[in-house]
Write a structure and sequence with these properties.
By secondary structure, the protein is mostly helical. 81% of the residues lie in helices and 0% in strands. It has helices spanning 6-26, 29-99, 110-118, 120-141, 150-184, 192-229, 246-256.
């Protein structure tokens, strides 16, 4: 690839000076102009090609940096999605189990005792939170390049903070109920519908949050690859406006701030 340097200028000026001197000596300025005009056209062409190559190289570097940023972020984002999927699966299972309890079944549930002994809800919550914080840390390393998407990260962080508080409160209520069940074998049937409703609400929030993580994954891919591929992934569509997307999540937290 041709690169325009100061050495090129010196070489061209030297040639033109020589041509000018020869033209002056022989007294034939037409000959001089016959050489000068094509030389100027050639120089202009070289300058244009050099400028075009530099612009093309600049765009290529920009695309490469975007793709590298996506490659660095995609694994932490995938880990967050998996962790929240596991947490959501657990919450769904507890919601289902609670729905099967009735006053005639005042029995001791083996799976429930296992939950109490292993503190699964707390462990899954901590794992999801750690994965999310790692995802944010990696994103912040590419903050300048991903600046057009920064509102999406802020919305995810705000929603994540709300989710953590919600699930911690749920954990306290659920494990207080589990304690009386495991230690005293008292079902406290009147608390079951309340717990079930809280688990249902939490599952809905987790489902929305997982969907928003998927949206961000699509958006980062579009941002990284759209210029190169001249195409984009379609946005996720929801059947009901009550279900959050990353766009409605941004509006939600902007209105709250």
């Amino acid at each position: 690839m041709f690169r325009w340097t100061s050495h090129n200028w010196k070489w061209i000026v030297s040639v033109l000076v020589v041509v000018a001197v020869v033209g002056w000596i022989i007294g034939d300025w037409k000959w001089f102009l016959g050489v000068l005009i094509p030389a100027c056209i050639s120089v202009a062409g070289w300058i244009y090609v050099s400028w075009s190559n530099k612009e093309h190289t600049k765009e290529e570097k920009k695309i490469i940096i975007k793709i590298e940023s996506f490659n660095n972020i995609k694994d932490p984002l995938l880990e967050v999605s998996r962790a929240y999927s596991k947490l959501g699966g657990y919450v769904f299972r507890v919601t289902r189990d609670l729905s099967t309890i009735n006053s005639d079944e005042g029995i001791y549930y083996e799976e429930t005792i296992k939950d109490y002994e292993l503190s699964l809800l707390k462990k899954l919550l901590e794992e999801a939170s750690e994965k999310f914080l790692e995802f944010v840390r990696v994103w912040e390393q590419h903050e300048l390049l991903l600046k057009p998407l920064v509102l999406q990260r802020h919305a995810l962080q705000s929603e994540h903070n709300e989710l953590i508080l919600n699930i911690r409160e749920l954990h306290i209520d659920y494990y207080a109920w589990l304690y009386t069940l495991t230690e005293y074998q008292q079902l406290n049937i009147e608390k079951v519908p309340v717990l079930q409703k809280k688990f249902e609400n939490t599952y809905a929030k987790l489902t929305d949050f997982s969907g928003c993580l998927l949206d961000v994954n699509f958006n980062i891919q579009n941002y990284a690859f759209s210029e190169l591929l001249k195409d984009e992934l379609d946005k996720r569509k929801v059947s009901d406006e009550k279900y959050l997307t990353i766009d409605t999540l941004i509006k939600k937290h902007n209105s709250e701030s």
